[in-house]
Amino acid sequence: MMAYLIYNAVITTAFTAALPFLPLFFWKGQRFWAGFGQRLGFYPTDLQLAAAQSFRPIWIHAASVGEVRSAQVLTQKLKQLFPQRAIVLSAFTHTGNLTARQNPCVDRVLYLPLDLCWIARRALGAFEPAVLVFLETEVWPNLLREANRKGIPTILLSGRLSEKGFRSYSRFIWFFRQVFRFFSACGMQSEIDRQRMIRLGVAPQRVFITGNLKQAAILPDAERLASARESGRVAGDYLWVVGSSHRGEEEIALTVFKRLRNKFPGLRMVLAPRHPQRFAEVEKILVAGAVSFQKRSETDGNRPCDYDVMFLDTIGDLENFYSEADVAFVGGSLIDAGGHNLLEPARFAKPVLFGPFTSNVASLARSLRENGGGFEVRDADDLATRMTMLLSDGQIRKNAGEKAYEIASADSSVIENSLKLIATYLAAPGDRMAVTAC
After folding, report:
1. Cα–Cα distance, 417 to 435 (Å, whole number)
2. What does the alpha-carbon distance between residue 116 and residue 133 come to, in Å, rounded to a whole number?
3. Is 332 left (phi over 0), alpha (psi -120 to 50) or beta?
4. Residue 228 half-sphere exposure, CB side, CA atoms within 13 Å?
5. Does the structure show a pLDDT above 80 at 23?
6. Measured between alpha carbons, how far is 10 from 92 in angstroms, rounded to an integer?
7. Phi, psi (5° rounding) for residue 170?
8. Per-residue pLDDT tens for 85-121?
9. Residue 335 zone, left/alpha/beta (φ > 0; ψ -120 to 50; rest)
10. Alpha carbons 205 and 413: distance in angstroms, whole number
């Protein structure tokens, strides 16, 4: 197809042009060179499964940390339903790969190969999956095409298409109409997402509403959490967690924090940047902000008490701090990054604050605004006003947290719908594989 010829010519040229700069990428840190061989389709023998002539595995791809975590319950249920099949979980980012390794239901964790046709072909040959599942908006044209050529069903789950993303795909509709048609089935988060996918060329009978897998996470007992938090509370002691912050948001958070400390001297803040590569940059911001802080990597695991700010320069700890928070702010939303997972604090019954840029989580943001579990803030003044309201009145804070929890626990059918869609494409295999029990 001419569209694919153009696409492959462009990315092959870009790949070839980047080769002389490989030493620079290696010098820039582990997140660039980790799994480099796997990204080229070379997987260690102990990772490969196809050569064992066994049950073909289920391959799930989740781009980064949020998507990897959303696969937790799905992999658990798949292991229960198909114990004879190995589960392969791939991630694109280094942090996603590290998070995936914490999932006990996954048999193999790997880096997604680069989307060059010969690399995609080599990777599929190494694992020969029975089905290839993509989470959210992961679209890799050559991997989809090569899977289709090998007769491997490809499924999109928890699919979402923001207005911005839809416009981007529509600009190149001559290409993406062909790409999206390679999906055997698409399980979307909402009716809006379903209609957008159909407009991009997927046959209506292949597009379903399965829901958002991030809402399928195992929820803690909200009353138990609230009781535990209150039992350890010191009068006037509050914890504000700023999660998944982007460049430009840390300064706003610090400005608001210092303003709030005038009225709430017992307030502490946990600051968790979205991207690990920005840790050094954010540390400089904290130093310049003239606040006392401690890096999480240098603590013994206790929550902050002697410092104004706990700087979360680690991976995988944010959820634990959300569970202890009084109020949470989710970043990537005061600047135009589309917003991040609002459900993480909501599932711990915490009031959720977020900015106006929430295209990645539009339906969740709308639901939280409408039921009173979340509040949109537009700038530093607005954020300070909302924080003051929530910290000043324990009952308002508690009610908002309970409303947020209602949204997090709203959709119990997501896993059932997703499992049904996957099972439809899992033909009974003819031979066996020994896998590690979950």
Report:
1. 25
2. 19
3. left
4. 11
5. no
6. 21
7. -65, -30
8. 999 999 988 889 999 999 999 999 999 999 999 999 9
9. beta
10. 20
Residue with tokens 């089935």: 185
Pair of tokens at residue 197 = 């996918």
Q: What domains, with CATH codes, occur in the chain?
A: 2-217+412-424 (3.40.50.11720), 222-408 (3.40.50.2000)
Question: What amino acid is encoded at 228 in this protein?
Answer: A
226 band by pLDDT with thresholds 50, 70 and 90: low
Range list of H helices, 71-205: 72-81, 94-100, 117-127, 141-149, 163-171, 173-180, 191-199
Instruction: Pull the structure tokens for residue 110.
Output: 């790997």
DSSP class of residue 204 equals G
Q: Which of 131-140, 215-224, 321-330 has the highest mean pLDDT?
A: 321-330
Nearest one of 94, 102, 87, 177 to 132, comparing CA atoms = 87
Instruction: Kindly write down the DSSP assignment for every residue of 324-349, as one continuous string.
Output: H-SEEEESSTTTTS----THHHHTTT
Q: What is the pLDDT of residues 403-430, one digit of tens each?
A: 999 998 866 689 999 999 999 998 644 4
pTM: 0.80
Amino acid identity of 298?
E
The Cα 223–Cα 208 span in angstroms is 35
* Tally: H helices and E strands in the chain: 21, 14
d(CA 54, CA 171) in angstroms, rounded, equals: 43
